[in-house]
Amino acid sequence: MIPHFSDMEDKFYYSDDFLVGDRYWRLGFNPKSGSALPIYLYAQGFRPDAVATNTWGAVNLRLKNQRSTNHRERYSAAWYPIRSDNGVGVNSIISLADLHDASKGYLVNDAIIFEAEMVKVTVTNIVSV
């Protein structure tokens, strides 16, 4: 949940890291990046006992409708290198006009809710022969 949405600046904001598989992930977005709201998935570091390797991440990125089940969802999938500086996702999960339309139910009490449903996480293991 992102509270105080209207007070946010024109910059990127990031979720706390969350662990899926051996890798940490986080969401990022800029609330004032143009005429639409983007959302991206970032691959972060690895668990301490994990082998660092390229990772395939497939995710359903979701903006929750807080008044119905009419959520906005976009699928994104990509290879994330061991060191990842760029997020992969969608440039528009919803137009800012629709987001700010109170009758639509996405921005409620000045808060929005993002979800990331990790559909698949795959790693590449290199084996010496």
UniProtKB/TrEMBL annotation:
Known CDD domains for this protein? Answer: MATH
Boundaries of every MATH domain copy? 1-118
Q: What is this protein called?
A: MATH domain-containing protein
Task: Report the domain of life of the source organism.
Answer: Eukaryota
Organism of this sequence: Brassica napus
InterPro entries (alphabetical): MATH/TRAF_dom, TRAF-like
